[in-house]
Amino acid sequence: MKVALCDTEQMSVRPAATPAPAVLPQLAVTPGTAFGIYVHVPFCATRCGYCDFNTYTAGELGGATPDGWLAALRKELALAVASVGARPVDTVFVGGGTPSLLGGSGLAAVLDAVRDNFALAPDAEVTTEANPESTSREFFDEIGAAGYTRVSLGMQSAAPGVLAVLDRTHSPGRALQAAREALAAGFAHVSLDLIYGTPGESDEDLRQSVEAALSVGVDHVSAYALVVEDGTALARRVNRGEIARPDDDVLAHRYELLDGWLSAAGLRWYEVSNWSRRDGECRHNLGYWNGGQWWGAGPGAHSFVGDIRWWNVKHPLTYAERLGRDQDPVADFERLDGRDRHVEEVLLCIRLRDGLPVTALTAPEQQRAANAVTDGLLTRNGDRLVLTDRGRLLADSVVRQLLDD
I want to staple 327 with a disulfide (CB 3.0 to 4.6 A). Which of 79, 274, 284, 322 is the partner? Predict the structure, then answer.
């Protein structure tokens, strides 16, 4: 189970060379699939030691600015509607980085840029990630009035020692207060993100973190095992022997504890790393896992439309310069063939509580699935295959077993 939270590659202030623009093939959204917009905000006030997402602190921007990024974003969204047509958008997700650094008015401008090009479906889900330190009751009031319907807050832990190892700057109580402020502002859907398995964390630390998150009354919790990513400050500390690498057996034990506590409180798992109350699931992420289509706008953002996946140039300055010259911000793309799509369907659907349709598997794969049922890793629920509790601990291994030719 992999942590996916923020990006901190070792990068120069500006890329040494600007790659030539890629030219996308003609795009066509697959009929009958959900369509979402992802907006990547690349700015962070500080860099967390574990983070390897495509984010930049002030000294790494090389002259790029939030205003320049927003102007470029508007141009990319205009390019998007010209490429795929003005179809309704089912979900919008603003991630980062730290979107809340833009403030309420900045996030309102982002959503306005989406609306200027695409019509939102009447029941569209509109989510933003937020760092507790850059939020307030006024912030939540403003983004709620702008049309956001869901907030995802990075909590990570309620234990000060764990937050210190992760280089998180917020106090243990600030994430909880931010969640209360969001709920008081009228947000029906508020999520808290936890990390488990940090060196030095105890079972009791985790219990207190889960209980704290539940005490606020949020309807969604995401929990990710800490992964030591190459090139991060955390990896350098591990390699120097300053702290221990997370232990797989400990991670499995902590996952079982998490699942038990969250389930007992009425939050059921709907994806291996996500739990929610009724109707609290993140529909945008479900779109990814269920084979939906999306346009990812912003530096380093990935998109998937039809059978084409592409990704933008990573640095915000290069991104803005490309679009300022009316060029694509695309770094490269790939066309997925039938085998690629099949592998992704198995890889993603098997992680869901709803499971994977048996008919999605080839005959040899169905036989291997029967073996996994016998081994207690999968269970048959009607015409779908669902991970057992033990299978969730070994989800990646189950996928390899099913697809092994």
Answer: 322
